[in-house]
Design brief:
The structure holds 2 protein chains of 2 kinds. By secondary structure, chain A is α/β, with parallel strands linked by helices. Helices cover 26% and strands 25% of the residues of chain A. The longest helix of chain A is centred in the middle third of the chain and has 22 residues. The chains are: A alpha/beta, B mainly beta. At the A-B interface, loops of A face strand 2, strand 4 and strand 5 of B.
């Protein structure tokens, strides 16, 4: 099969012929139909997050089941599915206590003594986040996918596989935004826009979008932002405090920077909660003014929207099909696998919402 | 000769050890792969040297900044 392989950080992905194993007892072979190109892929491509190489990037996809392992009963050949990196074992402490997205069990991948899922001759190709969706086939654990209804367009479904779940989930699950509360979202990429859409669905009062790109702020308005702030033109913290007369109940950082994480904290009203969704580079420290804790401010991380994706994703599909979740505007371009490097380069400019790879069927 | 301690950058588990004590390593050679929040994160030699100590075993948990290996340069 063809796949986009990362062999060295900060070099383009190479389209190569790669081999994929047959499904083990609890594995599923999926033929992706669509795969989103996400900013998180860029973090690994540019080395700000190290990863075992060579690897096939990509982690936001929807496809059709091609073959199932001998013990798999949840899906069958032909089922439409969304894949998710939050593969869960189902029996560790985190899973049993309801925190499936924090499952760290290695059993959803293959162990070092087993044949790798992906290889090129004798060379192991490391699977990215147990998925590797920039490829014509994916071999994944049965707990890394969810069945969806077949009237859901696959390119939209792919977005639910990561950015939608991460942004909407951060609002619904991690933060628990209440109707009427004021929300600010810093960063209007795919995840930030999903958080804005999620805040609108949750019934937030004021929804303030903060970014430095006009087109993204316009997009944010169409997804539910009630106010926009161009952080390149003003003091964003001061603007938020003035608009909300003292700060937000909830803020979301969706970029992954020290400065914007600290701004998310500063934008809070007493008792408010900041949720950091963005992937802050390894080794970066964040500074908070200690006295602010007297005001009962809270700060927390959110990984993949604290999801329970087997429940969440079908609901998000319904939200899209009944008009609440606006995914059409999120896709700026459909591309081929061979154009993935151009899509990653476009992400660096911050101009486009999302490129989606469409595979030939 | 100087000994260089190699810390883990993240909290996670040792998934695979790819080098052995006594191996001669070039800078950036992978010594082990950690698994942390679904990611396979390599621990690499920061400079060329000989691997003189491995301080963890497969499946061990490691903390951020914990020294996991030592090389002699």
């Amino acid at each position: 099969m063809k796949a986009a392989v990362l062999r060295e950080a900060n070099t383009p992905l190479e389209i190569e012929e790669v081999s994929i194993s047959k499904p083990g007892p609890r594995e599923v072979l999926v033929r992706p139909v669509a795969a989103g190109v996400c900013h998180s892929d860029l973090h690994f491509m540019d080395g700000s997050y190290p990863y075992a190489l060579p690897t096939i990037l990509g982690h936001e996809s929807a496809g059709i089941v091609e073959e199932v392992g001998s013990d798999v009963t949840y899906v069958k050949k032909g089922d439409h599915v969304i894949t998710c990196l939050s593969a869960f074992c189902g029996h560790c402490d985190q899973c049993i206590t309801g925190h499936l997205s924090l499952c760290a069990s290695p059993e959803v991948g293959r162990m070092p003594e087993e044949a790798p899922r992906l290889h090129k001759g004798d060379e192991t190709i490391h699977q990215f986040l147990n998925l590797s969706s920039f490829a014509e086939l994916m071999l994944i654990h049965e707990h890394a996918l969810v069945k969806i209804r077949e009237d859901m367009p696959m390119d939209r479904a792919a977005l639910i596989g990561c950015s939608t779940t991460t942004g909407v989930g951060a609002v619904f699950h991690t933060a628990g935004v209440e109707p009427g509360s004021n929300v600010a979202v810093i960063g209007c990429g795919g995840v930030g826009l999903a958080a804005i859409n999620g805040a609108a669905i949750a019934g937030a009062g004021m929804i303030i979008a903060v970014d430095m790109v006009d087109s993204k702020l316009e997009l944010a308005k169409s997804l539910g932002a009630t106010h926009t702030i161009d952080a390149g033109q003003c003091d964003a913290v001061g603007e938020v405090k003035e608009l909300t007369q003292g700060g937000c109940h909830y803020t979301f950082e969706a970029i992954g920077l020290k400065a914007t994480t600290e701004q998310a904290w500063q934008m809070l009203r007493p008792g408010g909660a900041a949720t950091v969704i963005g992937m802050i580079p390894v080794g970066t420290m964040v500074e908070l003014h200690g006295v602010d804790f007297l005001a009962e401010k809270k700060i927390q991380g959110s990984n993949m929207g604290s999801n329970r994706f087997r429940v969440d994703m079908p609901r998000f599909v319904d939200f899209y099909l009944n008009g609440k979740l606006h995914l059409d505007q999120m896709i700026s371009k459909h591309i081929k696998l061979s154009e993935v490097n151009e899509a990653l380069a476009a992400l660096k400019t911050g101009q486009d919402a999302r490129h989606v790879i469409m595979f030939d069927q | 000769m100087a000994k260089v301690e190699i810390p883990s950058e993240v909290t996670g588990n040792v998934w695979k050890i790819t080098a052995s004590v006594g191996d001669t390593l070039a800078a950036d050679d992978v010594i082990m792969i950690l698994e942390s929040m679904k990611m396979e994160i390599p621990v690499e030699a920061p400079e060329a040297g000989r691997l003189v100590e491995l301080l963890v075993r497969v499946e061990d948990g490691v903390e951020e900044d914990q020294v996991v290996a030592v090389i002699e340069t």
